Amino acid sequence: MLATVLTGMTIGSRADVSDGATKPLACVAPRSAFYAMPKIELPPGKTDVDFVLGLLRAKGVLTVYGSGFGTALEDGFFRIVFLASLDELSAIYDDVANFTAEFRAS
């Protein structure tokens, strides 16, 4: 099993904070990494770059667009690290969920 991270929480328990996420966000639970690659259902004509830059500008949450890791721009993947405290992650995931709703409505 992977060693504990920062406050003694395992990678799995940190990733579990995101289990409350619902569509249009989907994510396979990471097993041994410090990051996840969620997928968002993008509005027509938008790319993962549009989403990532919009999230950064609107909420101050830094992620990396999935196309930087070889996925197609229109696939909607982005990469997020989850090394923050559980309280911080909860707030960050709320920001991501709120922005996602706004982004998809625009």
Give structural notes.
This protein has 106 residues and is an alpha+beta fold. It has a single domain (11-105), classed as Aspartate Aminotransferase, domain 1 (Alpha-Beta Complex). Helix content is 35%, strand content 11%. Helix 2 (48-59) crosses helix 3 (86-105). The chain is globular, with a radius of gyration of 14 Å. The relative contact order is 0.21. Residues 1-22 have low confidence and may be disordered.
- CATH C-level: Alpha Beta
How far is the N terminus from the C terminus? 43 Å
Remind me, CATH topology?
Aspartate Aminotransferase, domain 1
Work out the oligomeric state of the chains in this entry. Answer: single chain
* Elements, N to C (H/E): HEEEHEEH
Strand sequence of the main sheet, in spatial order? 2-5-4
CATH architecture: Alpha-Beta Complex
In percent, how helical is the residue content? 25-40%
Unreliable spans? 1-22
Q: Please report the number of helical segments.
A: 3
Number of domains: 1
Kindly list the characteristics that best describe this protein.
disordered N terminus; 106 residues; 3 helices; alpha+beta; Aspartate Aminotransferase, domain 1; globular; three-stranded antiparallel β-sheet; single chain; 35% helix
How is this fold's topology laid out?
Layout: H1 11-15, E1 25-26, E2 35-36, E3 39-40, H2 48-59, E4 64-65, E5 78-81, H3 86-105
Antiparallel strand pairs: 1-3, 2-5, 4-5
Helix pairs in contact: 2-3
Task: Briefly summarize what is shown.
With 106 residues, the chain is α+β, with helices and mostly antiparallel strands.
